[in-house]
Amino acid sequence: MARRKxxxxxxxxxxxxxxxxxxxxxxxxxxxxxxSPERFEDPLVDEPPEGSLMYVMDKHGFTILMLELAxxxxxTCAAILTDDYWEPNEPAEPESSDDSSASPDEETEAKxxxx
Length: 115
Hints:
Elements: H1 8-35, H2 37-40, H3 53-81, H4 83-86, H5 104-114
Helix pairs in contact: 1-3
């Protein structure tokens, strides 16, 4: 049996999926922090420091999520459409040399009716 090659789009899907999950969780935390700032804010800090994860999520989080979602959609389509390419070609099963015109199902039914 020929060894099956791995479809590289599935590997890419895994990495983009993990990145999307982490981004979505970070974005959710940012939204929770903004929904009730009195619970989460440090009284000594007015705004998250520039370059911090919460700052990046606040400024670019939605855009990042949409880009990752688009990448997931494209990679999913690519993985599905190229599955046949990565599958090994299996040899066709040899046809039986039996000259009878009855199919195997018809032969089975005939034997069942005889008994």
